[in-house]
Amino acid sequence: MRYMKRLSVALIAVGLSAPAFANESIFVPSQHSGFKVSVDTLYLRENSINKIVDNNYDFGNDIQLGYLFANTGNDLTVHYNTISKNDSDLLIDNAKGLFITGKQVSDLDMVDLEGGQRFCASSLDMRLFAGVRYIRMTHGLGLISNSTDNLNDNSDVQAFNTKFVGVGPRFGTDARYNLGCGFGLDAHLNTALLVGKINSKYEGKDNTIINSDTNRIVPAVEGKLGFDYTGAFCNKSALVFEIGYQTSNHFNVIDASMINSASDSSFNGAYLDVKYYS
Question: Could you give the CA distance from residue 225 to residue 242 in angstroms, rounded to a whole number?
């Protein structure tokens, strides 16, 4: 959550600058019709849900395809976001004479369908959007405790797996402040309210199995801050390169078990976005 706090302060700072545009005329840009394609390369770390496993940064992707409606500032866009992580760590507990191996696997797949509306004021270009999100999120955590006297003796094996599948409304804003010469500052903020079901399964020593299905409402929030360069060519086409930092949080999406406490799923890290407007 500390990453969300840092980003929130920055986004609030952007919001506080809004009065500077109060005396400026607000208008809808007369954009031409055409397609937009965007490919984001993500380099994210998931905050660990267990102290034994220290997660590393891994690559993910966010692909967008949209259509711009002429002279309206409107667009219709679909996103697909995916990231898979596989991390493991070894902890030596000399007091108990144990080697504890922890392995954590997580997969996130999201599909967003949204409609957007652009408007401009002076150097500020904003896009408000609303739509629907589908999400499939899985987490797996395994712990193997071996005696330091005999590393081949698996004294205890435990595994916990949880999967959340949900759908719900999503809305937010994309803002760009034009610095001139093709450069700009970017801020993106969105939130969603997802309704779905969580399946949780714990497997412990001596074939202990605890399986449960729970209906759940999961709030989600995501923020991004970036810096971009836009190059225009062929009169109407444009190529945009944007680099920045992003963070996201899905609240109460991981259940508690004998080896894991209930927690959120939070990703943070860098992104590189390449957009093309036809």
Answer: 10
Q: DSSP per residue over 37-83, as a string?
A: EEEEEEEEEEPPSSTT--PPEEEEEEEEEEEEPTTT-EEEEEEEEEE
- Say whether 71 sits in a helix, a strand or coil: coil
Question: Residue 181 and residue 273: Cα distance in Å, rounded?
Answer: 19
Question: At 54, is the secondary structure helix, strand, or coil?
Answer: coil
User: pTM for this one?
Assistant: 0.82
Please tell me the distance from the alpha carbon of residue 260 to that of residue 215, in angstroms, as a whole number.
20
Do residues 167 and 197 touch, judged by C-beta distance below 8 A? no
Looking at residue 55, its amino acid is: N
Residue with tokens 């939070």: 266
Which residues, including other chains, have CB under 8 Å from residue 2's CB and lie 6 or more apart? none
Domains of the chain: residue spans and CATH: 2-277 (2.40.128)
Q: What is the DSSP string of 182-239?
A: TEEEEEEEEEEEEEEEEEEEEEEGGGEEEEEEEEEEEEEEEEEEEEEEEEEETTTEEE
Instruction: Specify the 3-state DSSP secondary structure of 31.
Output: coil
Residue 11 φ/ψ, nearest 5 degrees = -70, -35
Encode pLDDT of 86-140 as tens digits: 877 766 666 666 677 778 888 999 999 999 999 998 889 999 999 999 999 998 8
Angle at 10 between CA 43 and CA 59, to 5 degrees: 5
